[in-house]
Amino acid sequence: MKKNFLGAIGILLIMIMLLSACQSPAAPTQSVAPVDPTAPAESVATAKPEEPAATEAPAVVTKTTANIVHYYSGELGKKDMSTIIEQFNGQSEKCEIVDNTTGHEDFKTQILVMLAGNNPPDVFSYWAGARVQFVVDSDALMELTDFWNEEKLGDIVSSGIQGSTQYNGGIYSIPQNFHFAGFFYNPKVMADAGVTEMPATWDEFLAACEKIKAIGVAPIALGTMNRWPAEFYMDFLVSYSAGHEYRAKLQSGEAAFDDPEVMKAMEYWNDLYQKGYFYPDANAYDWTDSADQVANGEAAMTLMGTWITGYWDSNGLKAGEDYDLFPFPVIDPNVAVATFASTDSWAIPADAKNADCAKEFIALTPDMQLLWAMGQGALPASSQTDTSTFNPVMKKALDYINSGTMWLPAYDLSTTPPNAEIGLNLFALMMNDPSLYATYLADAQVQSAEVFKK
Predict the structure, then answer these.
(1) Are strands 174-178 and 324-326 parallel, antiparallel or unpaired?
(2) In angstroms, rounded to a whole number, what is the distance separating the alpha carbons of residues 235 and 339?
(3) Phi, psi angle pair for 185, to nearest 5°
(4) What is each CA distance from 358 to 69, 112, 175, 232, in whole angstroms?
(5) Distance between CA atoms of 454 and 452, rounded to whole angstroms?
(6) Higher pLDDT, residue 171 or 74
(7) Is 10 domain-assigned?
(8) What is the reported pTM?
């Protein structure tokens, strides 16, 4: 700020010197012919010196800078977030957002280090759920209840995700967008396999996998190089067989990894693997690789979040023609359907130096919500966003949530970060050799008990 101020003063001094140098010098004395006293008065010309035009130095506006740290480091995310920041900076009269992108996986550790240090950002992106709770419990976040009420966000944010804002009786995060996970598939592969109706039950799902395998295509693609893509199998298989309440107990340490309920869920998972339904060597690929396998017809489907639509759209695929979506099939009809994924939110550190600018940036303007949603394959947090231009698959996703389907945060967002690491390692082992799942679960429980001190 001091540097900007001194620079502005220097510019003003230079402008004043230039303006002074450009003024005309005093005119030399000239001889004037005598006036004829007999001439009419109106014929006498009276010369008046011209007054120089007044000049004013332009006002110098110095904006307050605010630092943002986010994990939108992929090609699409970085581009769209840069556009949003540029638009905000062009429109804001008082604030200038300085972008600090970091790698998606590196961010998970980096942001905690920054919050623990003496130089936190003014605003940062974060996943709602247990990760926000972890930081709230550390007294590192600013409560945003007053901001929520002033902006009337209760009338704007989609009702299904409003619970993701509340922690310890206050509001500490503002949703940017949300996703949900389902099976995204290649319609041509399904048609070639004779799967004309998407499976709604587990038995129908297994039958569809058999048909797909019979034509020489892997039924399911899964890239677990970064571990987290496998978590959706844990989420759905535990919830849909043991119920959502049991899953919540498992996430909080009230239930154990080696419980019969979890063993049963892992048996379902192991069964898919042993029948050869997964594309081989899942741990060698990331989620975009598995998306490519589906797009190329090497696999029929992948269990992934709605962000996959943004990836496919950017590669020229057409929604409804090249890809489509169906919900995870029901295992137990007595368990209500649900879906899992993430809510990307904004949070402001308790020690933020420029919180006012941070709040101005995270206000949910419909145009920026639409820009982000269209580019990312995201569902907008704002219910006021015009979704008429959404592609048919994203409309299907939004309608599914709006129908009243239960939305829950994914595994690593609904348990403590230390316990999430235990689970993520477990899932990677499952895709390496799931036949040892009982051993993996026993080991995971020993570690989890230490985390929860049970």
Answers:
(1) unpaired
(2) 9
(3) -135, 165
(4) 11, 19, 14, 33
(5) 6
(6) 171
(7) no
(8) 0.80
